[in-house]
Amino acid sequence: MVITLPALEEGGVRHFFGTRGKPPTPQRAVVVSVEQMHGTDALVVDRPVKPGAIFPGGCDALVTNQPDVLLTVRTADCVPVLIHDPARRLVAAVHAGWRGTVGGIVSNTLTLLQRRFSSDAASLRIGIGPSIGVCCYEVDQPVLDRLRVCRPDWRMVVRKAGPGRAMLDLRDLIRRQLRSAGVGEDRIHTVSLCTACHPELFYSYRREGTVNGTMVSGIMLVKDT
Question: Angle between the 170-180 and 105-117 helix axes, to the nearest 10 degrees?
């Protein structure tokens, strides 16, 4: 089983947010995946890719303007963010944990799209996939300290849970970063499912205390026919 957002399917693109089942691989697709580092680096694939190609080094965002290249990220509570620019024929897939999000991985990816491909944030369509919700994501003081330094509106994305602790709304933090970068609210689409609350659908590191598996999410440009 996979989850899709109809608004993200317009304009020659295919995508999915994975669940505990095996993710699909569209026909003719070359799958690109990388080692994820909980950082802010991105890989740009701007030339044809052969099946079995290996991309050394670690990063947490993937960008391509090549058709039939399926960009994938793996999550088990972190936020998968899929990006489509129908005007420039670009797609991107982002793995956004709290470290990457506070570090600005989503904003950095949009800046990369603009600088490398003249992409306009106002033209983007964004899909924010299933992830741990504010209901289950308790964080401690070091996380709050990092958040306070990076976001002047940090209080808007937390709910106090006790001394030095709070519940963090990671998806809302990402939405705010997208809006600050110029993406319209009507172009941001969110799957509001908490991975920790739905063991029948999702793996969850926070719920299980270990990595028993990950969900795969992906996005791909479809070759013109």
Answer: 30
Which domain, by its residues, includes 127? 2-132+171-221
What's the maximum distance between 2 C-alpha atoms anywhere in the chain? 59
CA distance 4 to 9: 8
Closest to 108 (Cα-Cα) out of 89, 94, 97, 125: 94
The CB-side HSE value for 25 (13 A sphere, CA atoms) comes to 8
Q: What is the pTM of this model?
A: 0.95
Classify residue 162: in a domain, yes or no. no
What does the pLDDT look like over 195-210, one tens digit per residue? 999 999 999 999 988 8
Tokens for 151? 């976001």
C-alpha 128/C-alpha 145 separation (Å) is: 25
Structure tokens at 77: 């509570």
CA gap 181, 106 in Å, rounded: 9
pLDDT per position as a tens digit, 13-62: 999 999 998 888 777 889 999 999 999 999 999 999 988 788 888 999 99
Q: What is the CATH number of the domain that holds 72?
A: 3.60.140.10
Structure tokens at 178: 């997208």
Instruction: Collect all residues with Cβ–Cβ distance below 8 Å to 25 and sequence separation of at least 6.
Output: 31, 70
Q: Which two tokens stand for residue 60?
A: 């947490």
**How many residues make up the chain in this entry?**
225
Which tokens in the block code for residue 104? 């600005």
- The CA distance from 140 to 163, in Å, is 9
